[in-house]
Specification:
This protein is of the alpha+beta class and about 100 residues long. The chain has a domain of about 70 residues. It is about 25% helix and about 35% strand. It has a four-stranded mixed sheet, covered by helices on one side. A two-stranded antiparallel sheet has the order 4-5. α2 links the parallel β2 and β3. α1 packs parallel to α2. The longest helix has 12 residues.
Length: about 100
């Protein structure tokens, strides 16, 4: 079995308070030609309506999914007030998503 290279999963975080700036920072760090999906965890401090629009603008048609968190684990360690994102290379991962309504 072939090993998955470390570059197949990339991570990034932003502590920018402005949703558009945070989304652009994440896109700048994660976007590459084979990026297939991004999963994010964000602080409840962000305005989710603004963040959703900013992420859609920054990542285009790329599948995105995420949720709020009570704290985030960044390259600085445990953090809060941030957005953490994980990007998966489509050459090594297949991702499916489905909305689960309450």
């Amino acid at each position: 079995m072939n090993a998955i290279p470390p570059s197949a999963v990339v991570t990034a975080f932003s502590d920018a308070r402005d949703e558009r700036l945070a989304a652009r920072e994440l896109a700048q760090k994660l976007l590459h030609p084979n990026l297939g999906c991004v999963v994010f965890f964000c602080s409840i401090d962000y305005r989710l309506d603004r963040l959703a629009g900013a992420l859609a603008e920054a990542f285009g048609d790329l599948p995105l999914c995420g949720c709020t968190s009570a704290g985030e684990i960044t390259s600085r360690g445990y953090d809060s007030g941030t957005i953490v994102a994980i990007g998966f290379d489509r050459r090594f991962f297949s991702v499916g998503a489905r909305l689960i309504e309450r």
